[in-house]
Amino acid sequence: MSTVCRIGEAHARRREFLRAVGAGAFAATSAGAFAQAEPRVYRLGILSAGFAMPKDVLNSATRVPELLRALGYVEGRNLLIDRKYAEGRSDQLPRLARELAHARVDLVLAIGTGPAQLAKSATKTIPIVFLGNFDPVAAGLVLSLARPGGNVTGVLITPEGSLTGKKFELLHQVVPGATRIALLMPDDPAAGVQQQIEEARNAASSLRVEGIVVTVRGGDYSGAFAMIETRRAGALVVGAHSFFVRDQREIIERAAKQGVPAIYEWPQQVHNGGLMSYGADEDEVYEQVAAQIDRILRGGQPSEIPIWAPEKLRIVINLKTAATLGLSIPQAFLLRADELVQ
Q: Which band of pLDDT confidence, cut at 50, 70 and 90, is reported for residue 51?
């Protein structure tokens, strides 16, 4: 699929997104104008275990407010956002969750399993929208995906699992000679991290390659990539984690310098020079988060809003990076790609 077609699809989907929620926004605005009442100011809390992202990195904390603005929620005018980042210290999350509950925000956007669970522990009345790649039923957040019950609903990044096993398979097809494939993961005890490690081990066993888990401790990417080189890993799966979205440029640069082919979580990482990615479309995911927030702020009940999960997962390949690495990607594999970055 060409980049031009991809952009056209994105614009068409965005127009559909705005039409779908825009009618409700217009009706509410018209009613408010007729009553000549002061516009309500909404308070949105964002709870994350990670750090504030650089402005040039696409992520929920920056993209969702942009999408909400398109729906009529303008930060500083009728929308206040209280951002709570644990900055890698999970022990701070309970306090941050309680602070949002005590502030009586209108809704909490929880990024990841831990923040979602702690937000739910802090309040049974404030609506919570989560974003992550975990099983919300097993995590005790909802009763079912179709009818969540309680005060929690959300958006899943993957339809099931973490996609780590599939990433191993795809990368092995592109680099069939790699007998050792490394998985880069942060030093984080979260359940999502452990799930990725387990999926990686199972995939490595099925592919009959050696799976190597390389942990980044305290942001020491130099040490992590030294380990990848020492263990002679022929390919790299970059784990799905907000830390690696934040630090993507350093990871991409180190992988390029070391000449190791790598697969990532998001298309943006491929557009920034990574070799390939497999997963959901970022814009679609963030649009769904904004749509759920909008629906709840307009009176919808989280208990009745189904959990959303992507139906389509995309393969994105950077042809320039492949050429730099000296990779000859099979034509059949290229034809499977949803986007080829020139």
A: confident
